[in-house]
Amino acid sequence: MTTADTPAEETAIGVWRDLRDLVLDRNERRKEVAEALGMSFFRIKALRRIAASPAKLADLADDLLTDRPYITLVVDDLAKRGLVERTPHPTDRRAKIVRVTDAGAAAAAEAGRILDAPPPALRDLGAADLAALERITAKLRGERHEGEPRGGGNEDARCQTLVRRSEA
Q1: E runs forming strands in 33-134
Q2: pLDDT truncated to tens, each residue of the chain (168 aa)?
Q3: Which residues contact 127 (CB under 8 A, 6 or more apart)?
Q4: Can you say whether the dihedral through the CA atoms of 133, 137, 142, 145 is positive or negative?
Q5: β-pair partners for 87
Q6: 96-100 and 55-56 as β-strands: parallel, antiparallel, unpaired?
Q7: How far is it, in rounded angstroms, from Cα 7 to Cα 83?
Q8: What residue ranges define each of the domains in the chain, with the CATH number in brackets?
Q9: DSSP state of 132
C-alpha cells in the first residue's frame, strides 16, 4: 500500500484510487468491446492504433509495448479477418505498411463508440460539475483549453462558459 508524507499527497492517493476504481472496475469496457467485435482487447487496441495512422510493424510493436513477433501474429489475425492490409512502404522496400480496410475502419469506429460511451453516473452530472471535471482532466493531461492563457487562466470564467454552452 502506498503511504503519504503530506495531507495533499494522501488526498492525491485517494483520488487516484477512486479514479482507477471508477474507470477500471466499475465501468470496464474492454470485455464489452471484445465481445462485441469477437476478438481480444489487444487486437482491438492494435486495430484502433492502425486506424488512427498506418504504420510499420516495428513501430506498432513499439507503440503497443509488445515484441515484434507478437505484433506480427496480431496483424496476421487482423488481416485474415479482412480488417487490415499490408502495403509496400514507399521508401523502404524491406518494410510493409499496415493500413485498415473499410471493414477495419468500421470495426475501429464501433470500438470507439463502445469505449467512449460515458457511464450513467457521468452523464447524470450537472453542467457545472462536467465543466469542472473537464478542466481538471485537461490539467492532468497537460492540456490548455481554448482561450486560456498559459498560466492556467480564470478557471471560474471557463466553468461559466462551459455551463452556458451546455445549457444552450
Answers
A1: 55-56, 84-88, 96-100
A2: 667 789 899 999 999 999 889 888 888 899 999 999 999 999 999 999 999 999 999 999 999 999 999 999 999 999 999 999 999 988 988 889 999 999 999 999 999 999 999 989 899 999 999 999 999 999 988 876 555 544 444 444 444 444 444 444
A3: 162, 163, 166, 167
A4: negative
A5: 97
A6: antiparallel
A7: 50
A8: 32-116 (1.10.10.10), 125-168 (no CATH)
A9: H
Q: At what angle do helices 30-37 and 41-52 cross, to 10 degrees?
A: 80
DSSP collapsed to 3 states, 39-57: CCHHHHHHHHHHHHCCEEH
Question: For the chain, how many helices (H) and strands (E)?
Answer: 9, 3
- Interatomic CA distance for residues 168 and 161, integer angstroms: 11
Q: 95: helix, coil or strand? A: coil
Q: Are 97 and 60 in contact (CB under 8 A)?
A: no
Burial pattern 150-164, b for ≥16 Cβ within 10 A else e, equals eeeeeeeebbeebbe
Q: Is the Cβ–Cβ distance between 77 and 67 less than 8 Å?
A: no
**Residue 8, all three cell numbers:** 495533499
Tell me phi and psi for residue 45, to 5 degrees.
-60, -45
